[in-house]
């Protein structure tokens, strides 16, 4: 057990300057923001009659192949109104990636337009809300993932290249707005690598197209889009790394950052394919590396940072492949070595803890992933990992996140960030002030 000086307090966490390098922009849309977007775009109508307030589905329907019949189906029902909705919650089924993805696809705007984000002002509205969250949480540096394709939705009157260029300038202005509050914002182009994207172009072509757009963005507005990301369910073969390789290598050759998702669903084998095949310096999640110790050492040798978000893993049903030892305890073991899928029941059992404690030198950063869609804001995530949330219990004999481990995660996060060294140094000096103040 740690000595007392390593114990995190709520007060200390509240003051900690943060780095959040893995945030999906649509995941920053809180249920309340999604509701407001629905009202703005006529998916939801509010009636003020007979002294009462009620709502109904608005006149503007979703597209026929959108995952929901009505936009309001993204929320748990019934929705109670007072001066606004009082009990809004996304209708995400327990441990269901699919239901999470359906909500994401409806709100983000470009997958089945019309969705929640339809014009520049909607996107600005979403970013403003996120900026307030960053101010409150003392976020110093954040990288938001957004598909450049949103440009075709919000600037539908322009030709494709003009629309993309206009998006880069718009996002540059947002970076300036954030900087006024001492928040450094950067963007990552993230595309869905699977068939869920409903694109008629192959994954190979979309990855190459991504590299071309990133080159274009880099030339037009340097420092706005700083890297590439691909997302989507690991099970779908169309998104496997062989199809992504050419696009990723082109992005690396421009000098921009490369990150991919892996090791959160189908097992360590897929995760290692991603790491070996793509020129990535960061892998999102990657907790299934615990299934195979050799792979843990390989991740360290290859100097890949695992960008973890344990809270969203728990919500969407984090699983490991395991075998039972002679006492009946489940031990992580890859599928190829006989492991069978089993869910992780409690946060304290998340492999994050074992990895950071037993493998010195492993680089793990913490992120929010989708702060409002199944995930939590970065600060809330840290509070939960530190055992300071009543929602997540750490039983006797287990140890929540300590201050030295948290500092290590913060350093791994900024070191892996796709930004200049000057920004990294600024963060490190803020972090060292925090360490001194709280005598950690
Ligand atoms: Zn992610």
Automatic annotation (TrEMBL):
Q: What is this protein called?
A: Adenine deaminase
Mind telling me which Gene3D superfamilies this protein's record contains?
Metal-dependent hydrolases
Keywords from UniProt, A to Z, are: Hydrolase, Metal-binding, Zinc
Question: Which Pfam families does its entry note?
Answer: A_deaminase
Asked whether the keyword Metal-binding is assigned, the reply is yes
Q: What PANTHER family does the entry give?
A: ADENINE DEAMINASE
Obligatory cofactor(s): Zn(2+)
**Residue ranges occupied by any Adenosine deaminase domain in the UniProt entry:** 117-319
InterPro entries per record: A_deaminase_dom (IPR001365), Ado/ade_deaminase (IPR006330), Metal_Hydrolase (IPR032466)
> Could you say which protein family the record assigns here?
Belongs to the metallo-dependent hydrolases superfamily. Adenosine and AMP deaminases family.
Q: What species is given as this protein's source?
A: Candidatus Cyrtobacter comes
Taxonomic superkingdom: Bacteria
Q: Per the record's keyword annotation, is Cell division included, yes or no?
A: no
């Amino acid at each position: 057990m740690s000595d007392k000086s390593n114990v995190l307090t709520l007060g200390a966490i509240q003051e900690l300057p943060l780095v959040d390098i893995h945030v999906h922009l649509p995941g920053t849309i809180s249920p309340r923001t999604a509701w407001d977007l629905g009202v703005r775009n006529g998916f939801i109508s509010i009636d003020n009659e007979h002294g009462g307030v009620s709502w109904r589905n608005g006149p503007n329907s979703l597209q026929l192949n959108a995952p929901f019949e009505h936009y309001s189906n993204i929320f748990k029902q019934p929705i109670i109104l007072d001066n606004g909705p009082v009990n809004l919650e996304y209708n995400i089924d327990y441990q269901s990636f699919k239901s999470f993805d359906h909500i994401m696809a409806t709100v983000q705007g470009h997958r089945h337009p019309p969705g929640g984000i339809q014009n520049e002002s909607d996107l600005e509205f979403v970013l403003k809300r996120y900026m307030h969250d960053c101010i409150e949480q003392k976020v110093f540096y954040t990288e938001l993932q957004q598909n450049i394709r949103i440009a075709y939705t919000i600037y539908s009157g322009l030709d494709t290249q003009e629309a993309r260029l206009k998006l880069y300038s718009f996002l540059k202005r947002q970076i300036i707005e954030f900087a006024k509050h001492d928040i450094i914002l950067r963007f990552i182009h993230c595309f869905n690598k699977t068939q869920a994207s409903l694109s008629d172009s192959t994954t190979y072509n979309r990855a190459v197209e991504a590299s071309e757009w990133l080159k274009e963005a880099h030339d037009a507005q340097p420092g706005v889009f700083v890297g590439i990301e691909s997302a989507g369910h690991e099970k779908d073969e169309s998104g496997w790394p062989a199809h992504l390789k050419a696009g990723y290598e082109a992005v690396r050759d421009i000098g921009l950052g490369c990150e991919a998702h892996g090791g959160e669903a189908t097992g360590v084998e897929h995760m290692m394919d991603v790491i070996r095949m793509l020129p990535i310096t960061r892998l999102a999640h990657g907790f299934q590396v615990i299934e195979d110790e050799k792979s843990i050492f390989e991740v360290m040798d290859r100097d890949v940072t695992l960008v973890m978000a344990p809270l969203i893993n728990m919500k969407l049903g984090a699983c490991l492949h395991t075998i039972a030892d002679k006492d009946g305890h489940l031990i992580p073991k890859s599928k190829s070595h006989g492991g069978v899928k089993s869910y992780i029941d409690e946060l304290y059992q998340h492999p994050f803890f074992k990895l950071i404690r037993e493998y010195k030198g492993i680089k793990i950063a913490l992120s929010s992933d989708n702060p409002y869609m199944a995930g939590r804001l970065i600060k809330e995530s840290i509070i939960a990992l530190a055992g300071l949330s009543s929602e997540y219990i750490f039983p006797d004999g287990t140890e929540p996140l300590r201050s030295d481990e948290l500092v290590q995660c913060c350093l791994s996060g900024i070191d892996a960030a796709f930004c200049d060294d000057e920004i990294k140094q600024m963060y490190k000096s803020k972090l060292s002030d925090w360490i001194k103040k709280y005598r950690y």
